[in-house]
Amino acid sequence: MQTTGQRAGLFLFLIGFALFVGTLTLSQYRLTDQVLAKTAKKEQLTDLRTATAPILGKLYGSSFGFVGDLKAAVGQLNSGYQQAKQYDKQIGSDFIFQTTKAASTGFFPAHSQWFFWASLLLCVGGALLYFLPERRTLPGIKNNGVFHNPATNRGWIGIIVGTFLIGFYVVLYFYPEYLTNWTLLFDPLSRLVNGGPASQWFVYGSLYTLAILVMGVRMLVKYRGNPYQQIRTVSVMFFQLAFAFLIPELMALFNQPAQDLKNMWPLDYSFYFDYRIDEKIKAGTFGLFLLVWGTALWLVGVPILTYFFGKRWYCSWVCGCGGLAETLGDPYRQLSDKRLVAWKFERVIVHSVLAFAVVMTALVLYTYATGQSSLFGILDSYSLRSTYGFAIGSVFAGVVGTGFYPLMGNRVWCRFGCPLAAYLGLVQRFKSRFRITTNGGQCISCGNCSTYCEMGIDVRWYAQRGQDIVRSSCVGCGICSSVCPRGVLNLENADETSRLTSPNPILLGNNSIHVQP
Fold first, then answer.
1. Are the C-beta atoms of residues 414 and 484 closer than 8 Å to each other?
2. Where does the 4Fe-4S ferredoxin-type domain lie (predicted)?
3. Residue 111 domain-assigned?
């Protein structure tokens, strides 16, 4: 039952969240010659003035009308360029975003910082006020009605949250011009850390980091009696804040190629794209270091570190996707599908994505080396990487991977789509010292371990048989061990030859005799 402090915290959070979302509707928009001069290229300015003449000086009360008319004018101009085969003059979608932001006028742009601090303090303060009263209760997992709560078992609250997340990612990836008011909110912060105005990606990175930090506090409170979970949570909070957010932004501030130093191919699928390679080469010694570092990380670091520590060294301690899943997504971990059919589907699709990434990258490097965009006249590198970026990088990783937290659990992307998780999993399954050992004689079949396994592993099945868990999908989060009331499960880095992998053990008290099939 919620305390008075929790109810107050929830109320403050909802007020701050409503204020933050509501800022998207507060601007008015007016396209002027000064705005066009600021956002258009010089060679396009004359044509744009002619194309946008009907809306120049017109005041719009919402972004929908302004963006619709601006897109229509730009689309008509681009059609003329296509007919004249002047493809180099075509105006990209970034012009729509930048112009919408520059055309924002009225009360909100002049006072955006008041809205920023008000919404930030209300949201963060309310969330912390909601989490901190949990210190009065005993740590750990209890019978807390997780499958009867409309927020954590696909109820009406979960559906609303999922719908919002899906809508957010759709707008972020495909219609960022409707988020320009949020970039106005974050402009001062962006100028502080990278020296330039905020883009939709800076806003996303800021919100992503803030979510991990705030929900990380929740994890620290929830698992305050478990040192492993405490250290692991602090680790993902640190790596997201420092390596994924601050360091790349500071690189941009010093005119260096921005790169998340902990991210790597194939998760960073564009790492070997031509423009990114050229960017690093032009940056000189530091750029070459980034190129070598990023290559060495997946080529050498992954096999070595995964051999000694399993994929948990990355998926549960370092990765930003895993960090968001473990913090923001923790309330939904019990929703992962434990059925055998889900496991079969998982193995096919996640390794298919990895194969897709390998083929796409190989073709991109072939194009970079030879200048030929197609191989055997069949595979075109530009269309292939565009397809991958849309289907995997945007829809799967973003819209489905995070938007489906309240519907399919918090590790949808990690389990079914992440090519790096597939690569790490192959190493873990066949050449790693990591395992979860079980003591079947102590298992009482309560099912906590399987319930809270975010990767859809039926941990109880292994525990009942006293069989060590060596699964490529296991991210070593350790929650199964944390929620076990009898201490049956332990995360270990043991010698490969000592694994207990017999599928047919006979249990005798606290010991097990394994019958070879």
1. no
2. 434-462, 465-494
3. no
